[in-house]
């Protein structure tokens, strides 16, 4: 199997090396396997009857908990989990990154 060249960079104030690989599959794999410190920023709890959701807007609007009738439906974070191995990211009605956890719609910030 041929070897691939990659480059590593260290971000200021960060001891982790970021490795860039030109192979898209490996790039996705590296992002999936990236260490993650867990939830970031303030939390928003939504509840309606027997349904509840917990969302962290500053963590990519990640839904970290979704319960229905007392049953947790999402994989929970623990220190052994990687960046994309817990919770889920909603993509409706928007797709992509939400700058500073804010959604601007019809002239209002949410």
Automatic annotation (TrEMBL):
<protein>
    <recommendedName>
        <fullName>Aldose 1-epimerase</fullName>
    </recommendedName>
</protein>
<dbReference type="GO" id="GO:0005975">
    <property type="term" value="P:carbohydrate metabolic process"/>
</dbReference>
<dbReference type="InterPro" id="IPR014718">
    <property type="entry name" value="GH-type_carb-bd"/>
</dbReference>
<dbReference type="GO" id="GO:0030246">
    <property type="term" value="F:carbohydrate binding"/>
</dbReference>
<dbReference type="InterPro" id="IPR011013">
    <property type="entry name" value="Gal_mutarotase_sf_dom"/>
</dbReference>
<dbReference type="GO" id="GO:0003824">
    <property type="term" value="F:catalytic activity"/>
</dbReference>
